[in-house]
Specification:
By secondary structure, the chain is of the alpha/beta class. The protein has 2 domains: about 200 residues, 3-Layer(aba) Sandwich (Rossmann fold); about 210 residues, NAD(P)-binding Rossmann-like Domain (Rossmann fold, 3-Layer(aba) Sandwich), CATH 3.40.50. It has a 6-stranded parallel beta sheet with strand order 3-2-1-4-5-6, with helices on both faces. Strands 10-9-11-12-13 form a 5-stranded parallel beta sheet. The chain is elongated.
């Protein structure tokens, strides 16, 4: 039996335990999938979330109760329990602060926790999105300092970027090729063996930890830039009196045209990851130009939309301060409950800055969470009539709406701002505007 076979057998026979630190949108799915093959400890510092998972409830509302069935997993907020593990996976969030500077506190906190529980011979694999070099330059020294162990000699480290897409029931964890990396050849083989046990298409072995980190951060940077191009084109075509979606449909008949659409770019990945790359780039003395330009365009879209709506009302002889606006949708994308970095709230603030009276509704978002995170009170339902109705998120329930519904909400000369272009050709009496 080879060393690699012996290593993975120690987990399949449950002589060794895997610990997953951080049980959010990324950590819980990976923990449950691993727990179908191995013995797993799921660790999170949020005791309320842990209590829900102990009752087979996903606090993020992404996984059904059945997803917990057949899993050999213990959920805990106790670091003492985590000491049983020998293979640690870190899946904590990596946001940016109000100045778009990477906030590594969750990551350094997880590294501190590992430093308290790690033993000689153990493995640590980071999944959180970071800039190239973060794992070895920022996380490993913390583990070494607290544990008293030496990197590579006493413990091994790897990086395997998460590819979780909230709300996507097609490209799920086990259906997507997983990038893996290690600090040496042995660790690469061992880490690959663990992930290969649950990933159907198999794993891709990156040349180094830094390469794997860079691959993750450019995946979303590329998407961010492509959407930024669509948003800029939308603003240009709007001035020309051309419908952007008509242009994209025509251009899309060419076999190699990339089919992106304009829109609000939020969430925990696309609107955040590019700042990790530009932060490190600036630190190394190179000021990124294209990446930051794309970020500027996408971050400016809420203001652009608000200005267009104000222009429409002024053209009708109306004062925005005497107008009511309804925003439908608060989550960062369709059919999810996730409100992290949702740009809809930036649009809300922009409309408030123009002195609109603004209501916001979204049955999928948690009203308490919205109030706590953004200081915005979600309305249980629309109330009265509105001069502007912004449908900001393409929830399935919203896609099914027709003009009769909007006529019950809108003033006769109101504008329906259809951010995702769901109602093209469907509104005959009301004014339809889209990006």
């Amino acid at each position: 039996m080879t060393d690699k076979q012996q290593f993975i057998q120690s987990f399949t026979q449950k002589n060794k335990v895997i610990g997953v630190i951080g049980l959010g949108y990324v950590g819980l799915p990976i923990a449950l999938e691993l727990a179908r093959k191995f013995k797993v400890i799921g660790f999170d510092i949020n005791e309320k979330r842990v209590a829900l998972m102990q009752q087979q409830i996903d606090p993020s509302n992404e996984l059904p109760k059945e997803a917990f069935d057949g899993c050999d997993i213990q959920f805990t907020a106790d670091t003492e329990v985590l000491k049983q593990a020998t293979f640690f996976i870190v899946a904590v969030p990596t946001p940016v602060d109000e100045h778009n500077v990477p906030d590594l506190k969750p990551l350094t906190g997880a590294s501190t926790t590992i430093g308290k529980v790690i033993k000689k011979g153990d493995y640590v694999v980071f999944e959180s999105t970071v800039y190239p070099g973060c794992t070895e330059e920022d996380c490993v020294p913390i583990i070494e300092k607290i544990s008293g162990l030496t990197f590579r000699q006493d413990f091994k480290v790897g990086y395997s970027p998460e590819r979780i897409n909230p709300g996507d029931t097609l490209h799920t964890l086990t259906k997507i090729t997983k990038i893996v990396s290690g600090c040496d050849d042995e660790s690469l083989e061992h880490i690959a063996a663990v992930y290969d046990a649950i990933i159907e298409p198999g794993v891709y072995k990156a040349a180094s930890i830094k390469v794997a980190e860079a691959a993750k951060v450019i995946e979303n940077t590329q998407r961010d830039l492509n959407i930024a191009l669509m948003n800029e084109l939308s603003q240009i075509f709007n001035r020309m009196g051309i419908n952007t979606y008509d242009v994209l449909e025509a251009a899309g008949t060419k076999w190699n045209f990339l089919k992106f659409q304009p829109g609000l770019v939020g969430g925990h990945c696309i609107g955040v990851d590019p700042y990790y790359l530009t932060y490190k780039s600036n630190e190394l003395g190179y000021k990124p130009q294209i990446i930051l330009s794309g970020r500027s365009i996408n971050d400016g879209m809420p203001n652009y939309i608000a200005q267009k709506l104000v222009q429409y009302l002024l053209g009708k002889g109306k004062n925005p301060s005497q107008c009511r606006a309804l925003i439908m949708g608060a989550t960062f994308k369709e059919n999810v409950t996730d409100i992290r970095n949702s740009k809809v709230f930036d649009l809300y603030r922009e409309l408030k800055n123009f002195h609109f009276e603004v209501d916001m509704v979204d049955a999928m978002a948690d009203a308490h969470e919205v109030e706590e995170e953004y200081g915005v009170s979600l309305s249980p339902s629309p109330s009265g009539t509105y001069h502007v109705v912004v449908v900001a998120v393409a929830h399935d329930d919203y896609k099914a709406l027709d003009e009769e519904y909007f006529l019950t909400l809108a003033e006769p000369d109101a504008v329906i701002a259809d951010i995702k272009n769901m109602y093209a050709g469907k509104l005959k009496q009301l004014t339809h505007w889209t990006l």
